[in-house]
Amino acid sequence: MDFYRILYSSKASDAMKSSDVMNIIATAQAFNKTADVTGMLLFIEDGFIQYLEGAEETVVKLYKKIAQDSRHQDCKVLLQGPSGEKERSFASWNMGLKIITDQDFQDLKAMNENPDFNLFNELEGKPDIAKELMKYFYNHGEIDFGKFWNSDNKIRKDI
Ligand SMILES: Cc1cc2nc3c(=O)[nH]c(=O)nc-3n(C[C@H](O)[C@H](O)[C@H](O)COP(=O)(O)O)c2cc1C
Question: What gap in Å lies between CA 41 and CA 28, rounded to an integer?
Answer without folding.
Answer: 10
